[in-house]
Amino acid sequence: MSLITTGIVSFTVIATNVGFVNQFWEIWVKSWLIGYIVAVPSILLIAPQIEKLVAHLFKEEKIHHN
Question: Domain of 30?
Answer without folding.
Answer: 2-57
